[in-house]
Amino acid sequence: MAAPISEKMGITTPKDSIDRLPEDPEKVENTETTTDEEVIVPPVNNGETQQRWNESTTNLFRFFSTIYAFILMGMTDGAIGALLPYIERYYSISYTVVSLVFLSPFIGYLLAALLNNLIHHYFGQVGIAVLGPLCRLVGILPLVFHPPYPALPVVLLFTGFGNGIEDSAWNAWVGNMHNANELLGFLHGAYGLGATIGPLIATAMVTKGNLDWWYFYYVMLGLDAVALVLLTGAFWRATAKVYREQFLDATGGKRTTTRTVLKNPITWLLALFLLGYVGAEVSLGGWIVTFMLKVRHVEEFWAGLSVTFFWLGLTVGRVVLGFVTGKMGEKLAISIYLLLSVAMQILYWLVPNFAASVTFATFLGFFLGPLFPAAIVAATKLLPSDYHVSAIGFAAAFGGGGAALFPFAVGAIAQSKGVEVLQPFCLAMLIFILLMWWMLPGGHSRGGLERARENGEKVGDGFRRVGRRVLARSKGAEA
After folding, report:
1. Are 363 and 79 in contact (CB under 8 A)?
2. Which one of 81, 133, 201, 248 has the largest count of C-beta atoms within 10 Å of its C-beta?
3. Rounded to an integer, what distance in angstroms lies between the CA atom of residue 459 and that of residue 454?
């Protein structure tokens, strides 16, 4: 018996995201006259038909293939920080110039944010499965030939685009499954695992194997070639035709434009939250080694090991706290994790001891771990179901740009002020994303996000409620 189309596509929506908002004037009824900016949206399903990661061999294959893809994405992002001092030394360049290896992928992530839905529409999920690894291969291949430095930022545009479209697509797919908090915890834990072993392998190759920095990318070439085969095989039947047929059957031809999704303030709030979060995470991961060498004055191997412990803490946090977050409620849990992260960041900054620094960095990674998965779950609970693929895809890819933008900013400032600027910079970013999180609709009790959608709460309502209470109490005190 042939598998239903919904099983082939793998995009469903949570039960609490079924109720649709009033019809948007941007909706277009006639599919033949829609423009390229308009994107297919996933069908509306009830909670009983939510996909499970293990409901079929197809889903099992696809889920574990995305896990492997996230491991490679983590290795790519994590290793660059460990190799940064050696790239700087090899090319004899400044902090600002070497930081361009962080900035250039931002353009790739931005393009991924804008094109994610069009790729789904014209090529389906199999298009993502092919383009993601292929773009990473195009970006990595020149690195093994250690070309002149100006070529590095250019080729890394491709890795940014490949990571961006996979990041957005697989987040949207897994984020709409049953037990999304836990599954996204494993998915992003895989990224953390890659970011843990990537620097470890790279550091060992350079410091213990006496190899030049570019030899690490021979390893990545082989691993990404495997990813191309795995993902293409896993999503081979998830074509554009399947994607469009599922949509037309479920919605009668209605489509939601990208412009409409971007007019919703929640989309931008989550995108800014992820931009700041990923920026803080990768700034720490990218500059810890240099910070330990220049400020804590430790040996190269131990400096490389410190970033491994940071990513290890992040990996464990994503997996372990993923089971806690859903039980506490996303709004409360992430608020607690962020406050603890701020405390760890301050201690990491102010305690000038190597062992203490590694300990605080590890716990900082642990509490930062579940933030990205929780933001994806929040999107599925606060936004209409037909916004999910577009909004999550945009927020994830736009947020991924933080991995390029903010580490570059740290490097540019460090050129004149020293790498010590890493700590106050990351502290400011953590406070910023905490404020962004508190601006989301919904209270801090469990189920607050769901009730916020049911009650039609708006962005910043929590701050307004607190302001009214403070004002009322001050008036009462005066009386």
Report:
1. no
2. 81
3. 14
Output the pTM of the full model.
Answer: 0.74
Which domains, and CATH codes, for the chain? 39-44+51-251+260-468 (1.20.1250.20)
Cα–chain-centroid distance for residue 244?
A: 26
Nearest Cα to Cα of residue 448 among 280, 325, 319: 325
Report which of residues 196 and 225 the model is more confident about: 225
Cα–Cα distance, 60 to 305 (Å, whole number): 34
Cα separation, 396 vs 188, in Å, equals: 12
CA distance 177 to 54: 11
Type and span of the H or E element at 38? strand 38-39
CA 408/CA 94 separation, integer angstroms = 12
Neighbours of 37 (CB within 10 A): 12
Write out pLDDT tens, residues 228-268. Answer: 999 999 999 888 887 777 655 544 556 666 678 888 899 99
Residue 320 has which token pair? 């372990």
> Does residue 24 contact residue 262 with C-beta atoms inside 8 Å?
no
